[in-house]
Amino acid sequence: MRELVRELSRQIDEYVKAYDPDDSLEWQLVLNEVSTFIDIDNQLSVDQTPITLYYRLTNSVIPPLPMGADKILSNIQLYSLEEIIIIGNYQDQIKFSELTLDMYRMLQAVERQSVESTSSSDERALMQSPATQQKEILVSSL
């Protein structure tokens, strides 16, 4: 992560030298926001484990739909992350652009883990007798 911030800093320096030195202050503010956001996020943990690994939605934790919901949902588009509203209620928070750190953590909590991720034992089984679709999934994940 630090390497990406250094690369961003180098690109900002090149931009300021080549195009518009007056933009230097604004770009420095953006760089400071990014650095502060990353520093604070790295220091925060929930129960000494990263929230991104254990609290994402999976099929096993989503409650089943009530009876008759299939008829209702057939007329409704599937939900996506862009339809979720997350609101921060404190003015002075660590943030990058308009995304505060608590909003970032909430997004991580509702983010779905990839269904296509396979464990090493699954990969060994696929290598022994894979189906065509399994081959494509395995190759795309490598």
Automatic annotation (TrEMBL):
InterPro entries: SCAI. One of its GO terms (biological process) is DNA-templated transcription. Pfam families: SCAI (PF12070). It comes from the Eukaryota. GO terms for molecular function: transcription corepressor activity. PANTHER family: PROTEIN SCAI. This is Uncharacterized protein. The lineage of its organism: Eukaryota, Metazoa, Spiralia, Gnathifera, Rotifera.
